[in-house]
Amino acid sequence: SIERARDAVTSVRHTFACVGLVVLAGCFTFVMVPDSEVPWLSPPPPETAALPTIVIDPGHGGNDGGASALGLLEKNLTLDVALRVEQALKGFDFPVVLTRRDDRYVSLAERAEQGNDHPDSIFLSIHFNKSSMLDVGGVETFFSDQKAPPPDDFTWMGIFNVKPPEPPSETGEQLAGFVQTSLVMKTDLRNRGIKSRGLYVTRHVRRPAALVEAGFLSNPLEAALLRNADYRQRLAAGIAEGILSYYRSRPSPAAPPTDGKKSLGPQMVSAKLE
After folding, report:
1. How many Cβ atoms are within 10 Å of 75's Cβ, its own excluded?
2. Cα-Cα end-to-end distance for the chain
3. What distance in Å separates the CA atoms of residue 55 and residue 52, rounded to the nearest whole number?
4. Alpha helices, DSSP H only, in the chain?
5. What are phi and psi of 199, to 5 degrees?
6. 13-28 burial string, b = 16+ CB within 10 Å, else e?
């Protein structure tokens, strides 16, 4: 009977040991292979696509006055028009960023960096022209058909953590086309067309980027117009409408929030921006 009791105790011990191993294995399984269906571990549902950030770049500033002619200074005009463009775009609920809001110097690299800070953005730089010939005038818009490659910041961790590839850069040619067309329609100035040129900001901003030369300070007629606040408002409306038209042309764009009154239709856009 003593032998039988000893065998029974041994059997119980073996049974508890097996149960303990099963429980321990289950714990490791829970820790190392979490259940993807657990609500708090599931990825959040995708949110509705947001509107792109519009980055407006008033050219020059601070100790860089830009072009000057007939009593006009480029840096003052670019900031004035940029602030007007900002107000027009905010009327359609677009988030807007200005590379400068006052008379300060901002380097070209800093301007491009602000354009690249937003994963979905549209970048437009505003400038004015000057010529030694007084009869030269009109508007023109530039883009870069060759973008600068993104910086390759090497780290040892990069060996183990491969960065996802950058999305293909848009040259900004379509953006330039829409802005140019809209400006010419608003101002009736000479259409000098769109051109590809390796300008720093259009080349280094990886998102759609364009630079507009919105008139010649050296042209007496255009200089007289630029002194008029209503005309500068027309310039801003033309730029904003060009950006909106480009946005509407993009494949499957996210519709802006609407309260039933706002619309991106051409008539509503023109009426609201004027």
Report:
1. 24
2. 106
3. 9
4. 2-32, 74-90, 108-116, 173-187, 200-204, 220-226, 229-249, 266-273
5. -70, 150
6. eeeeeeeeeeeeeeee
Angle between helix 229-249 and 173-187 (nearest 10): 140
pLDDT digits (tens, 9 = 90+) for 103-115: 999 999 999 999 9
- What was the pLDDT predicted at 160? 52
**pTM, to two decimals:** 0.73
Q: Which residues of the chain have pLDDT under 70?
A: 1-49, 150-169, 252-274
Specify the pairing of strand 72-73 against strand 68-69: antiparallel
Closest by CA position to 91, among listed 141, 54, 144, 142: 54
Residues 251, 159: Cα–Cα separation, whole Å: 36
Counting Cα atoms < 13 Å in the Cβ hemisphere of 210 gives 25
Q: Which residues contact 134 (CB under 8 A, 6 or more apart)?
A: 218, 219, 220
* The token pair that represents 92 in the structure block: 């359609």
**Where do the H-state alpha helices sit in 33-149?**
74-90, 108-116
Coil, strand or helix: which one is 47?
A: coil
DSSP 11-35: HHHHHHHHHHHHHHHHHHHHHHS--
